[in-house]
Design brief:
Layout: H1 3-27, E1 42-43, E2 47-49, E3 54-55, E4 60-61, E5 65-67, E6 72-73, E7 78-80, E8 82-84, E9 89-90, E10 95-97, E11 99-101, E12 106-107, E13 112-114, E14 126-128, E15 133-134, E16 139-141, E17 144-145, E18 150-151, E19 155-156, E20 159-160
Parallel strand pairs: 1-4, 2-5, 3-6, 4-7, 5-8, 6-9, 7-10, 8-11, 9-12, 10-13, 11-14, 12-15, 13-16, 14-17, 15-18, 16-19, 17-20
GO molecular function, one term: nucleotidyltransferase activity
InterPro entries: GMPPB_C, Mannose-1P_guanyltransferase, Trimer_LpxA-like_sf
Domain Mannose-1-phosphate guanyltransferase C-terminal: 43-160
Length: 161
């Protein structure tokens, strides 16, 4: 298997996560989050939120989102088709679409971490490794960022080593 074949594997993680969440609707509906945007975040479709996560009531989440333990989601955040791993902070008005955000990462205010969602493309999803910092107002599109990096400029179609 060459490098690009290995890179495509995380795209399957997002696809499989969506399938698991859809299955929970029938097998374990109590695991799926609910919310109408008043006292809790607005939830669209199948979404899992770990009980220890703190989600601002003005956030809009889903479909196909999984939020792990000790995650902090700020006001006005929009999450679509993503996996947010443990101890991540997504600050106010940030957007995450078709991405995997690694443990202990931080996404700054008004930032975007997104991909087009084409799982067959070389960089069809965005992946942030462990402890990646995306500073305020930075856009990361169709990119892979290895652990312990800080992004203070926008990137597209890049692998940040």
């Amino acid at each position: 298997m060459d490098f690009w074949e290995q890179i495509k594997t995380p795209g399957m993680s997002l696809k499989c996560s969506g399938l698991y969440l859809a299955q929970f609707r029938y097998t374990s509906p109590d695991l799926l989050a609910g919310g109408d945007g008043t006292k809790s975040a607005s939830i669209v479709g199948d979404v899992y939120v770990h009980p220890s996560a703190k989600v601002h009531p003005t956030a809009k989440i889903g479909p196909n989102v999984s939020i792990s333990a000790n995650v902090r989601i700020g006001a006005g955040v929009r999450l679509i088709g993503c996996i947010i791993l443990d101890d991540v902070e997504v600050q106010e008005n940030a957007v995450v679409i078709n991405s995997i955000v690694g443990w202990k990462s931080s996404i700054g205010k008004w930032s975007r971490v997104q991909a087009d969602g084409d799982y067959n493309a070389k960089l069809g999803i965005t992946i942030l490794g462990e402890a990646v910092i995306v500073e305020d107002e930075v856009v990361v599109v169709n990119s892979i960022v290895l652990p312990n990096k800080t992004l203070n400029v926008s990137v597209q179609d890049e692998i940040i080593l």
